[in-house]
Amino acid sequence: MHRLYLLIPLCFALLATSASAAVQVTAIFNPPRIAMGDKSQYIVEIKETDTSKLPDPERVTSLPIPQSGGLELTNGRTSTSQQTSIINGAAEYSITQQLIIDAKPPRVGKFTIPSYVFQYKGETYRVPAATLETVERPADAGPTTDELIFLKTDTPEQLYVGQTTPIQLKLYISENIRLSSLNSFDRSADGFTISELPDSQESTEIVKGRRYRVLTWPLTITPIQTGEQDLSFQFTVSANVPGQNNRRDPFGRRGLGGSLFDDLFGQTERFTVYTEPTKVDVLSLPNDGKPDSFTGAIGDFSMKVYTDRDETQTGEPIMLSVEITGNGNFDRINGPIIPQIDEWRTYAPESQFQPHSAESTLRGTKRFDYVMIPNHDGNIQIPSIAFAYFDAKNKRYTELSSPAIPIKVTPSSKQAAPPTVSNLPTNTQTITTAPPLQKELSMEDALLTLDYRPTPSKHSNSKALKDPSIWIINLSLAVILTISSLWLRHKRRLKEDSAYADQQAAKHELRAITNSAQHAKDAESFYAQAQSAIRLAITCRTHKNHRTANINELESALEKAKVAEETISQTRELFQTADAQRFAGNTAPSDLSSAKSQLERILKAI
């Protein structure tokens, strides 16, 4: 029988092993009999009791649940409770854990999940068999729960890596259902970055003749890994469903504990609703035709370039502004690179984004302001500026460029510095005294600036100067001042230089993730961390952000950095092995020592 390994995060808190501990494992379907189209719940319950203390938890991440006859098991979750009983002065402590999985049969008939065993705390425990019976749905039966409340999304089938796309998450609630609360929201989207869940927008829709109240959440998703990526969402909700007990019994009998009041007013229950599991095919950006000015912009854009004035003086700055307007992934758009020429000194730009509407950050204008200072006078030009983006709809790159901007630069009108005594003519009797300089010093400047104020001379004690402790104290002070000044310079640069700050952050991340990769116990964790480590190492080497780059982009960056072909080949091999292990289901060898050595060699070479 084909075995299905349900990999969901579980937290089974169980009693510590002791002579008085007892473990009881049960498995049931609730309800055990349903009409076609309804869902049941497969529940595995583990109860452990002890007479001495409350149990210590142990984490279990998988159960080897056999599949039977195509029964669909989805949406696993856990429930935990504990109890203390005192009977005739004797205490008994118990913890009960439930693994609850939705079960949906594909046809009428009986479905049995056979008995199986699992390991826990070094011991083997057996889960008993459980059977679900599915019968034909009565002609007068009401709608199923899935028809009364469900979740949908408009996920695209294909995207490019780095392409930001809007989607809508919609919760449909039948008009006879009273929604009490939204208890939790979760998603399965390891290969994406997703915007935060905003406030919902409410509307009404009619689906298959039934009116629904619809709660809509607009989201944006951005794929960060190539290949087929899983994407699904789920809500846990509390809702009042009239006549729910009768609907669960295919023969119309009232369920255990049901009453006439339940039939009339319904009862509040918790449901987990989820979108159907979806795989999105994430493509790499093509290398053919990629301009040098492309830095990751995907969408449809236009560019406008202008200055705040067309003439200035030598040494006086002007402002150059570049506006990118359109629709796309603005959060990944960096300022175009200004070509370095002798006529100008340029500085990193400041950016500002203005969305065209409050509901979406995909349409708007992003402006980059550059400070430019002419080095000499004359009729000089601001060079042409290029900006490239990838048009995902037409699958091609487009490069926008601006014409050179002429600027008239006149000599500076500022007075030259006053002459000093040494360069005055010998017959000049007048000495011009410059006014004292006044400047508010930063902490760093204060540490680096000597006190130049004259002090009354004192008779030096030659014996004191020969004392070794004086030299040690002065040397220590010099070291402290040097370290302090370097630290302050580092802090100021982190604040003022975004590229330097990003590089330093990448170095810290690289150390942490490399250590995690070297201590990884399984292939999946190792290869995911190894890929991130290589991306961070190339980011540090090239001073450009490659945290989300694919293997083709990384190879191109390594070639430009003149890294040895052998290292590039090893990097390609590691990424291919990682992709095969993650996406093709290939099982990597349990001994990862050679792969870890390969990663270490690659990182040292980069």
TrEMBL record:
Keyword Transmembrane: yes
Protein name: BatD family protein
This protein's UniProt keywords: Membrane, Signal, Transmembrane, Transmembrane helix
Highest taxon listed in the record's lineage: Bacteria
Signal peptide: 1-21
Region (Disordered): 53-79, 410-431
InterPro entries cross-referenced by the UniProt entry: BatD (IPR025738)
Coiled coil stretches, renumbered: none
Transmembrane stretches, start-end: 470-488
